[in-house]
């Protein structure tokens, strides 16, 4: 395959990786640069090689682009940006992302820890379990529908189990093991290869795999070979763990065969199996034969819910203080929605974050402002940067606010004085820090109050979009009893002390002395009040919010029911309690607040909220793209002739586009002869506006166009009627 | 050796064997007679019988004993056992036969490659026919489960049966489940049947093999044994006749029921002699389905079972602080089996509900919608699509499914029901074209997903997320592709809109899924 691709360089142009480009067929292209650049071979590369291939691709790109700088980021401002600024953007990205990447990986690894421990101990203990009999120990790991994202889990499992039980670990995927032979081959190959990895002497052991001890050669799907190999290894445990990563995707007959085989080898080779189960154990069991089910000695393990993992990743990578770039509320909402509504694993979420970082630093010249003090010098800021800042929406809003506040000098200098503006921009960095701290501390306090149910992610996104909404919390506080309030305050105090390790937020005791002292005051006051009330024999403190001011009383006097309204009396303590609550609420409204993110001047430099690039990359819509290309090809071809014919027929359109237009008008079965005559009428010699094509050439083009339509999945051959093609695609 | 013409093996051999394998005396003797070199060695022998009747185990043990028994000065009997389960291909069985024979004879330099029966015969002749062996030397080839051999050519069995015609020293033993008439294509093959055990035999075996070793507290060992005897008999009557006919499953039932059965004795409410009272008390436990079908999750099945295994359970859960679902299930299951025992069905219901909630919480909404749409596509005939899903006139669907109601009023119902007696949802799922399912999906999505209509039109098109959801459902086998290659000779891509698919989930699951999204799927099905 690769050779044929090589022979045909027109198949892969270096334009392939670009989102938008004007198509220029190879024949039309006379640029020597492009011909020199050899197309990169398309081949399946393992993950290790992928990075290398990416470098090769980058090199190829470097050859063709004359404007490349040392940094791979292009200069912006129409090429006016200095190379240093572009390099700095690259540098900021290169330092910002790995921090997050490391944190995310940590979170993910940590999330699987308990599952790992449980599985290892199960596999270890199953060996000695008397009730097991000859059954195969089987761990069912409920992973959720996104099997791909469990790659990490199985990787960790193979590490942990290899260590814990000295077993060979084999991972099977349905795609790699279509039948019994292939599955066994993989099991044997992997089980024997692992030793040579950690054993050391590779060459000799490989020979032993093939020949065993007595020089006998084994078929590569013969477990006898594995047995002989394990015997030759002096491996007393002879354990092999086979993990079926996507067990639903395996044929049930294949599973049955494999399990029966493993079972019959039990005693000579200690097989254990692990199943990654996406749906439920019951559904899985329903697919197995009962006799197979009886050979399994199973236990069920749960992986941490995807929601929880998402929350943790969100906290550390998006909300946490370590995040250099803030993602805006629109994008975040969309990302979160996608996680909830679609089959998109946590991996997709992470790559979306990375993509947002890449887009921001690649395409936003103001992202240099995120660089640290040292590297961001005054010389680096070009007039274009200043100009760009002045076009920002947030700049306009800021100036207008200054005018409204009668700070006319400030506003004027902002608009006219470059150095003043630069000073303001530098100051803005501190303001941004303050804003983020305030936001995170407020959120942390809110979540540690634990009064209003709600996920941190939703709270964070809402706070970014429209500021913090305290109303539900305040309502909840007002309903609290006298015993709960001190507990609440204690929770808050500890929250202030410890901060939040998830968010990487240190405690801020020193900065919040005032808040702490007022909180403790209120707490002491309420406790004293409660004590007083108890001494007086009052049941519990009531505030004006909790106590219903009017109580309907029912009295039965001489078998008659009397209804009377009674105003509940609030004692002095109750009133004082009400006041304390009031002051507490006051305290909260002054200390827990946050503005929407777009109210800040210069937020464009450190917040990214564009949804479209993300959607185009992660949720492509091939149907719409095809449709657009076929109805308005001039947008892609850049030719003059077709631009008038938007959505209508024109002879100058490419054949496929004409056929597509005709195709849209047909019913479910298309007569090929009719299609041809309609096409020929348009482009043939007798047509008015036509190109005057000869019949042979027109027919050639027609065939090609129809074949292309078939390739794109619009039509297919029909058995219903001779000489007809069936229309396949109705929706986009 | 001054041996007579016919001489049975030592009686001691039979005694030891029948202690290990009780109630199989006749079969052991018959097989021994037909295999022993001094008795009546035959050329081929078919041993057949159902699962778990001791065919393989007895053959292996007997041959082992015979080999030792006849081993005087020189070898008189050698054997190999080739298990067909372990042989993946026909070539595999030939090669492992040769390798094992060479090993049994300590033969050096056997061929490693063997593609066909004739080649195997040549190799076997080299080892068995030409070299000199003592008179009466027999070599027994046991083909265990040969009827289950994968990729077996049709000539395999007849060819194996003819091995002994060329090499007279060979006896081929075929262990099969039930031999078809003259399946070896050769005349006169002795067959020995290993029938399933009778009630008395079952009870005897259970008494000798799996008698509880420790006596119950507050009772003597004799009382315990007696109780066990009557208990196994009762279990056999209750379960074996109808459902669990094999020895292992009966054994499993006994051992898992025993603690529950004896719980009243431990609690002190009944004496071990009051068997009928114990039976009445334990009647509910006999209805527990997990006795017959233990399922694959063993750890959970302990925890639901009983009080004395509770210690075990604790061990397990202590070793495994994991399995939160199993622990979460424990109280509910325990309740349903012990405290509210009058409802044996509740366990089954629990299972169903657990399954459905599982699926509906596991799958994201888009995937659930797609699954529902494909269920509709699988179970509604195409001609009703326009009626059910058309939004052409009012922007909303004109009529909700349940056409039968409308027809009933019109008086056509009789004719209809004559036509189709079985409810459609009870019939299997039909295949549908992917494009049709997607059309149904877009039609119902607006109605079932309230958020959908709020979105702007650009984000309401088919996007990659939907295709990802389809691919996921396909990889979970909830949607199944029918017919590998697409029509027209083009190898079908999974995303080919013309491809045919089938919904692979049942009505119960779909109803649960629908309810989890606030949809009554029944209303959308045409009866």
From TrEMBL, chain A:
CDD domains: Orc3. It comes from the Eukaryota. Residues 48-59 have a biased composition (Low complexity). Residues 512-539 form a coiled coil. One of its GO terms (molecular function) is DNA replication origin binding. Residues 66-369 form the Origin recognition complex subunit 3 N-terminal domain. It is found in: Nucleus. GO terms for cellular component: DNA replication preinitiation complex; nuclear origin of replication recognition complex; nuclear pre-replicative complex. Residues 625-730 form the Origin recognition complex subunit 3 winged helix C-terminal domain. GO terms for biological process: DNA replication initiation. Residues 26-65 are annotated as: Disordered. Keywords: Coiled coil, DNA replication, DNA-binding, Nucleus. Pfam families: ORC3_N (PF07034), WHD_ORC (PF18137). Belongs to the ORC3 family. This is Origin recognition complex subunit 3 N-terminus-domain-containing protein.
UniProtKB/TrEMBL annotation, chain B:
Residues 305-347, 399-419 are annotated as: Disordered. It is found in: Nucleus. GO terms for molecular function: DNA replication origin binding. Keywords: ATP-binding, DNA replication, Nucleotide-binding, Nucleus. Residues 228-287 form the ORC5 lid domain. Belongs to the ORC5 family. This is Origin recognition complex subunit 5 C-terminus-domain-containing protein. It comes from Neurospora tetraspora.
């Amino acid at each position: 395959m690769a050779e044929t691709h090589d022979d045909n360089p027109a198949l892969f142009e270096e334009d392939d990786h670009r989102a938008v480009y004007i198509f220029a067929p190879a024949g039309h292209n006379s640029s020597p640069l492009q011909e020199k650049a050899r197309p990169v071979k398309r081949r399946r590369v393992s993950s290790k090689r992928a990075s290398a291939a990416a470098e090769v691709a980058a090199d190829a790109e470097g050859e063709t682009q004359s404007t490349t700088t040392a940094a791979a980021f292009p200069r912006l401002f129409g090429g006016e940006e200095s190379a240093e600024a572009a390099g700095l953007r690259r540098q900021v990205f290169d330092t910002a992302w790995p921090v997050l990447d490391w944190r995310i990986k940590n979170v993910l690894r940590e999330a699987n820890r308990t599952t790992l421990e449980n599985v290892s101990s199960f596999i270890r203990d199953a060996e000695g379990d008397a009730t097991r009999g000859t059954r195969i120990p089987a761990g069912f790991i409920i992973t959720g529908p996104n099997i791909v994202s469990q790659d990490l889990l199985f990787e960790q499992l193979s590490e942990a189990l290899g260590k814990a039980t000295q077993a060979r670990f084999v991972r099977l995927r349905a795609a790699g093991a279509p039948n019994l032979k292939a599955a066994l081959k993989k099991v044997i190959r992997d089980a024997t290869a692992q030793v040579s990895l950690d054993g050391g002497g590779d060459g000799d052991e490989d020979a032993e795999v093939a020949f065993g001890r007595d020089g006998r050669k084994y078929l590569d799907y013969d477990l006898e070979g594995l047995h002989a190999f394990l015997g030759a290894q002096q491996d007393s445990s002879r354990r092999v763990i086979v993990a079926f990563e996507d067990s639903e995707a395996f044929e049930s007959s294949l599973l049955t065969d494999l399990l029966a085989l493993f079972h019959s080898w039990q005693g000579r080779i200690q097989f254990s199996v692990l199943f990654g189960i996406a749906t439920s154990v019951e559904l899985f069991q329903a697919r197995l034969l009962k006799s197979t089910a009886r050979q399994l000695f199973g236990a069920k393990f749960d992986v941490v819910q995807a929601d929880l993992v998402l929350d943790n990743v969100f906290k550390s990578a998006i909300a946490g203080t370590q995040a250099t770039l803030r993602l805006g509320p629109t994008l975040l909402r969309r990302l979160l929605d996608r996680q909830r509504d679609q089959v998109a694993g946590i991996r997709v979420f992470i790559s979306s974050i990375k993509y947002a970082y890449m887009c921001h630093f690649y395409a936003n010249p103001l992202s240099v402002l995120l660089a640290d003090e040292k590297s961001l010098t005054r010389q680096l800021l070009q007039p274009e940067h200043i100009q760009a800042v002045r076009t920002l929406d947030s700049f306009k809003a800021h100036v207008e606010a200054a005018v409204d506040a009668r700070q006319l000098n400030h506003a004027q200098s902002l608009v006219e004085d470059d150095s003043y503006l630069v000073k303001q921009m530098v100051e803005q960095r501190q303001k941004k820090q303050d804003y983020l701290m305030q936001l995170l501390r407020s959120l942390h306090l809110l979540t540690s109050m634990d009064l209003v149910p709600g996920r941190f992610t939703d709270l964070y996104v809402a706070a970014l979009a429209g500021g913090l909404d305290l109303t539900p919390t305040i309502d909840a506080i007002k309903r609290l009893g006298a015993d709960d309030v001190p507990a609440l305050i204690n929770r808050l105090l500890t929250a202030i002390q410890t901060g939040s390790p998830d968010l990487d937020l240190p405690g801020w005791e020193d900065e919040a002395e005032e808040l702490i002292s007022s909180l403790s005051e209120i707490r002491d006051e309420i406790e004293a009040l409660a004590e007083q009330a108890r001494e007086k024999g009052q049941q519990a403190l009531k505030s004006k919010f909790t106590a219903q001011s009017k109580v309907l009383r029912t009295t039965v006097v001489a078998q008659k029911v009397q209804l009377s309204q009674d105003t509940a009396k609030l004692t002095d303590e109750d009133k004082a309690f009400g006041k304390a609550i009031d002051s507490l609420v006051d305290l909260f409204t002054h200390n827990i607040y946050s503005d929407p993110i777009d109210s800040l001047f210069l937020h464009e430099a450190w917040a990214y909220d564009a949804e479209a690039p993300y959607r185009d990359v992660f949720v492509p819509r091939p149907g719409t793209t095809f449709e657009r290309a076929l109805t308005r090809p001039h947008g892609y071809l850049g030719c003059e002739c077709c631009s008038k014919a938007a959505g209508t027929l024109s002879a100058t359109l490419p054949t496929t586009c004409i056929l597509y237009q005709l195709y849209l008008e047909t019913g479910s079965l298309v007569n090929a002869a009719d299609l041809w005559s309609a096409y020929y009428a348009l482009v043939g010699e007798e047509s008015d506006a036509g190109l005057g094509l000869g019949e042979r050439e027109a027919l050639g083009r027609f065939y090609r166009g129809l074949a292309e339509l078939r390739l794109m999945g619009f039509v297919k051959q029909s058995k219903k009627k001779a000489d007809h093609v069936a229309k396949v695609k109705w929706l986009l | 050796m001054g041996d007579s013409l016919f001489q049975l093996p030592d009686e001691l051999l039979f005694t030891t064997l029948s202690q290990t394998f009780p109630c199989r005396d006749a079969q052991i003797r018959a097989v021994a007679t037909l295999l022993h070199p001094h008795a009546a060695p035959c050329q081929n022998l078919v041993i057949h019988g159902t699962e778990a009747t001791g065919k393989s185990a007895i053959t292996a043990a007997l041959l082992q004993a015979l080999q030792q028994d006849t081993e005087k000065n020189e070898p008189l009997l050698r054997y190999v056992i080739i298990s067909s389960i372990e042989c993946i291909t026909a070539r595999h069985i030939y090669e492992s036969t040769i390798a094992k024979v060479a090993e049994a004879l300590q033969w050096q330099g056997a061929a490693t490659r063997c593609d066909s029966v004739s080649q195997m015969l040549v190799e076997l002749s080299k080892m068995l026919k030409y070299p000199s062996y003592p008179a009466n030397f027999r070599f027994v080839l046991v083909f265990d489960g040969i009827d289950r051999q994968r990729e077996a050519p049709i000539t395999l069995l007849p060819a194996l049966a003819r091995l002994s015609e060329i090499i007279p020293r060979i006896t081929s033993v075929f262990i099969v489940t039930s031999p078809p008439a003259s399946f070896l294509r050769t005349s006169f093959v002795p067959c020995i049947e290993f029938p399933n055990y009778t009630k008395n035999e079952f009870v005897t075996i259970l008494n000798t093999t799996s008698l509880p070793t420790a006596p119950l507290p507050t009772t003597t060992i004799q009382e315990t044994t007696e109780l066990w005897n009557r208990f196994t008999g009762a279990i056999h009557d209750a379960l074996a006749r109808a459902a669990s006919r094999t020895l292992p499953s009966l054994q499993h039932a006994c051992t898992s029921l025993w603690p529950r059965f004896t719980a009243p004795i431990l609690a002190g409410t009944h004496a071990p002699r009051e068997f009928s009272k114990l039976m009445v008390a334990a009647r509910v436990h006999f209805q527990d389905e997990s006795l017959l079908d233990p399922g694959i999750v063993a750890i959970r099945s302990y925890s639901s079972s009983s009080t004395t295994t509770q210690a075990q359970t604790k061990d397990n859960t202590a070793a495994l602080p994991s399995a939160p679902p199993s622990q979460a299930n424990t109280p509910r299951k325990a309740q349903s089996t012990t405290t509210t025992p009058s409802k044996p069905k509740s366990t089954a219901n629990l299972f169903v509900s657990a399954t459905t909630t599982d699926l509906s919480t596991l799958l994201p909404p888009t995937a659930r919608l797609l699954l529902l749409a494909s269920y509709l596509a699988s179970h509604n005939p195409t001609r009703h699509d326009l009626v059910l899903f058309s939004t052409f006139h009012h922007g909303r669907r004109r009529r909700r499914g349940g056409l039968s109601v409308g027809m009933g009023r019109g008086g056509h119902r009789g004719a209809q029901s004559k036509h189709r007696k079985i409810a459609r949802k009870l019939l299997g799922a039909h295949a549908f074209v992917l494009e049709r399912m997607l059309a149904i999906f877009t039609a119902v999505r607006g109605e079932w997903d309230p958020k959908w209509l709020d979105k702007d039109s650009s984000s309401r098109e088919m996007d990659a997320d939907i295709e990802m959801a389809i691919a996921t459902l396909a990889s979970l086998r909830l949607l199944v592709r029918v017919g590998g290659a697409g029509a027209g000779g083009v190898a079908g891509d999974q995303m080919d809109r013309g491809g045919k698919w089938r919904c692979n989930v049942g009505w119960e699951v779909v109803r649960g899924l629908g309810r989890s999204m606030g949809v009554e799927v029944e209303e959308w099905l045409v009866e």
